[in-house]
Amino acid sequence: MKIAIMGFGTVGSGVGEILVSQKEEMTKKAGEPIEVKYILDLRDFPDSPFKCFTKNFEDILNDDEVGLVVEAMGGTVPAYDFTKRLLTKGKHVITSNKELVAKHGTELLTIAREKSINYLFEASVGGGIPIIRPLISSLTGSGINSVVGILNGTTNYILTQMIDKGKTFEEALSEAQEKGYSEKDPTNDIEGFDTCRKTAILASLAFGKAIDSEKIPTEGITKVTLEDTMYAEKFSCSVKLIGECRKAENGVFARVCPAFVPYSNLISNVNGVFNGIMVDGDEVGSVMFYGRGAGKLPTASAVVSDVVDAVKHKDTNIRILWTDAPEGYLLDGKDCKYKFYLRLKGDMNGFENAVSIADGEFAVITDEITEAEIEEIAKGHEIIGKMRVIG
Amino acid sequence: MKIAIMGFGTVGSGVGEILVSQKEEMTKKAGEPIEVKYILDLRDFPDSPFKCFTKNFEDILNDDEVGLVVEAMGGTVPAYDFTKRLLTKGKHVITSNKELVAKHGTELLTIAREKSINYLFEASVGGGIPIIRPLISSLTGSGINSVVGILNGTTNYILTQMIDKGKTFEEALSEAQEKGYSEKDPTNDIEGFDTCRKTAILASLAFGKAIDSEKIPTEGITKVTLEDTMYAEKFSCSVKLIGECRKAENGVFARVCPAFVPYSNLISNVNGVFNGIMVDGDEVGSVMFYGRGAGKLPTASAVVSDVVDAVKHKDTNIRILWTDAPEGYLLDGKDCKYKFYLRLKGDMNGFENAVSIADGEFAVITDEITEAEIEEIAKGHEIIGKMRVIG
Question: Which of A41, A304, B107, B177 is deepest in the core (most CB within 10 A)?
Fold first, then answer.
């Protein structure tokens, strides 16, 4: 099959590399050769071994020989318009673009279904970790109750450095930037927006109905202090930025926030730039997926796997249940009960199992309560730190 | 689609249960209703809600309405003959039978390919953990270098009890039997045969060529002592029964043996009846899959996922690369280098980084050496314990 790559940045060039270096292997796996006919990018790449660059999207759109397009542009403009037109023309589209999938997944999947082609996005969550396909085709024998994950490598690296090396948030962030783990503008990572989009995608797949990422309550890690991580250790917990979604009686509840995770939960041992995603099912129990959540080749390898799968399903839509959700389907979660870590000012007298790392303050882990009940538990003490504890 | 279930034991009855309790959900996922028309078992089940039992295999084989059969009989007689005849008749077969897949996978997959149907076996390794499908369709964008796993829940439970509770092997084994985690005859588990079959299946899929399970060097956990686990702790390691396969220059190397695994490797934190499988790929890096490796509903849910997938691929063979291997493809591994844990009698003078838990003995972890070099390292000291150390 002849294909095109749109966007020749980190992921796009990685896809090109793998398709060339593993040409023979990929032909065997896909059942036919996969040939890159166009690469769309506004920049020039005079030193690239590829000689098929174009700056004109129409070249790809109007070439009937091109059966599949890899969209590695990122963002929604012009990726949304391009993807829609390609799918409408009957070309498979494979993407790593989580923003686009989170925002327009329902519509783009519907077009793919109608045209009996595929819009696949394994690389949009968890880099090279297979999580999308297991959700749509391996865990179908089990009703899914929840998905809880560490979905962003940058923030997990920062938190790991704070916990293991005693670095402050600011020190750990600049180290992550120096090592190239974080973009110059780290907002999407540290404010939790990246985790939020991935959570929306996982929730939409796990429960079959679209979750709007903009409506998921999202808190990043900028307020996590070194003291919080020290208290976590006292309670045999790690601090992790968690994206979670859970099935409830009348809908689905989703949230992104930093949380205490007990050492006994394997997620707690997922450190550094790694991601870990725990799926809990009725029949299957707890299943975890772990690996590098980002990086050029891991992400590109996930894109290439989707390319191979689409070539294998040339004339068949791989059924992905993801439809519009009814009004009120995403619940606000204020009735959800959690254990909470509370760091309080004052004297710990009268608090059971309290611990302290400095004079004039202490911390407790509550029983399972709603957020509204926290003030009552604090008994008038000023709250200077607070996080959910996740099983 | 109308289907049959052969063998109404733990897994077969679990499949029936899920198909009934999640009928609506499964219809949505498969795109059509899945109806159990026959259940083959020599026993009677007067209290079962199912009323479609038969003792005659020919009923299923000759009924053209039956498009798919779940083989949950176990063993190779008569499962091999039945499966072959069903596939030849053009009926999809889904199985959890690792013995049959390990022994006759190549032949049965070839028939399925020729008939454009499917022989699927997600449940044969790792219970409900999706590992087979990721290997054949999600990790295709990355060359695989190795698969290393804890593949047997019973032995992992026993080792965890020894490490965490200080129980002897014998005590832990009888506890596993009391709890129903181990069969009455635990040979297959504790001698490593079960892990060996699963390793053969994973190796055959990961590298595309059949590995004969009977030729994989296999050592169980019966010789692991409490002292070994105490030394492991001193070296910040767990003791795990590991099935591994690795790509080498001229073939593949595979082995099953108990090993030290450093705490820093996530596999080391996979405890109790859980399984964990680490796949290492050129592009994707390390990816781990974790969950319950056995049990009625986890295993049955994996079978049901395969049923749904086969219904979705009614007229298409899902390409699985698994062909005959050339002579000498499975290497004997005697040149493979490992670090070794050695427990030695005598005085630790002259040994670097040695530790001791009792008078007159000590232990070391060697540099990377071949098995042949061990005697030299031991410098004439009697070896009373020995295990590989795995990354």
Answer: A304
Q: Which of B24, B116, B283 has the most A C-beta neighbours within 10 Å, making it the best mutation to test the interface with A?
A: B283
Return the CATH fold of B133-292.
Answer: Dihydrodipicolinate Reductase; domain 2 (3.30.360)
Active site residues of A: 198
* B316 interfacial to chain A (CB closer than 8 Å): yes
* Whether A291 and B286 lie within 8 Å, measured CB to CB: yes
Q: What are phi and psi of A58, to 5 degrees?
A: -60, -30
- B133:A128 CB<8 A: no
Cα Rg of chain B (Å, integer):
23
- Which residues, including other chains, have CB under 8 Å from residue A287's CB and lie 6 or more apart? A134, A139, A278, A279, A280, A281, B128, B129, B130, B289, B290, B291, B292
Domain A142-292, second-level architecture: 2-Layer Sandwich (3.30)
What distance in Å separates residue A241's CA from the closest CA in chain B? 19
- Are the beta carbons of B301 and A25 separated by less than 8 Å? no
Q: What is the pLDDT along chain A (391 residues), one digit of tens a residue?
A: 999 999 999 999 999 999 999 999 999 999 999 999 999 999 999 999 999 999 999 999 999 999 999 999 999 999 999 999 999 999 999 999 999 999 999 999 999 999 999 999 999 999 999 999 999 988 888 889 999 999 999 999 999 999 999 999 999 999 999 988 887 899 999 999 999 999 999 999 999 999 999 999 999 999 999 999 999 999 999 999 999 999 998 899 999 999 999 999 999 999 999 999 999 999 999 999 999 988 899 999 999 999 999 999 999 999 899 999 999 999 988 888 999 999 999 999 999 999 999 999 999 999 999 999 999 999 899 999 999 999 8
CATH topology of domain B2-128+296-312: Rossmann fold (3.40.50)
Tell me if B104 sits within 8 A of B121, measured CB to CB. Answer: no
Of B143, B270, B308, the CB nearest to A140: B308
Residues of B in Cβ contact (< 8 Å) with A26: 140
| Residue extent(s) of CATH 3.40.50.720 domains in chain B | 2-128+296-312
